[in-house]
């Protein structure tokens, strides 16, 4: 069992007597614990970050990029340990942990390091010299579904830009953050440039968002929590970047390759057990072809093995916690109660499994305004929504408060034209691959700001114009 401390100014720092246990959702076993941090712990971490800022921000960009690259290398070297830790702390199947949970932060951090040489740190506009400078001390608050990727997507560009960081990782899955702390030390990052304060959102998260010496907060999590971060941060008028919830639509057009649309669509609905903010949880289908598509979905769903997340053949592990299990089950029960047609799965327990498991579920004939079609469930629950024509499909796709991701399947140019009409931050056309250099973020209540690539680096920079 891992008994961890805060990481402040380059060293482990003992917190108070109160601890937060970390539980393996597949077995219920306690696999670690972290201190329940306080506002005083945040003060200490922010002071360390503030003290480290002048030296780190003055470090040449090439040297900062080299440190970020060494962080990427360190993650890759410890990939097996990190993947196993993520599987233990939040239940992601081990194969997914290896191929995605670890591979993404390795790739994104290396991509940021490579950006440094050609990035426009300065430019000439008429008689002005435009200079991009670090914001200062960045507070990063991250979720449990991709516990390392979400950290690295903030920390790597923030450090590259010359900022220092105070991180509050999720208390549900905080163990991987401590591995990253060790990696940053080995990479040569100066003490105080990266700090970790464990704890809950209402205590540690709010202290970071409110702190007068924190210049920016970058938050990933629920829309409800993101709204609270914005409110708390507003007193100090600090910069706030939010990557929040989603209810993404997968629009299958009449001229789509149905086999591909169903296979890829289901995979992206149930990715990471549906615990993904970009999951395509609404499949919009031509009404006349709904039965055909549902039949294919049910056939494809049979191949999604639910089970022990340490088994390489498992495709869906437990939900991240018993609380998340209950949340997902309650939504499935609501879907049944509201009259959606249950075609696969259901609210019953998974046979033979005692952990935080749920049955992957598909509903058909879902009304566009139904609760299960409007609210983020964050589990393996797919709503199939029939539409009469393309105009209605676009209207339904844009009818939630969210706008994070989406997809369109159809003849390429036709699908691209529909994709342009979706009010969402990312759209995949015919299964287009995830691009780690492309901007990631949402419209509407899915947040503001962008992560990854050049756009993600720019989030952590101030812009100054010097007239000569």
Automatic annotation (TrEMBL):
The active site is at 243. The keyword Cytoplasm does not apply. Residues 17-466 form the Aldehyde dehydrogenase domain. It comes from the Bacteria. Transmembrane segments: none annotated. InterPro entries: Ald_DH/histidinol_DH, Ald_DH_C, Ald_DH_CS_GLU, Ald_DH_N, Aldehyde_DH_dom. Keywords: Oxidoreductase. Pfam families: Aldedh. Belongs to the aldehyde dehydrogenase family. This is Aldehyde dehydrogenase family protein. It comes from Pseudonocardia kongjuensis. The lineage of its organism: Bacteria, Bacillati, Actinomycetota, Actinomycetes, Pseudonocardiales.
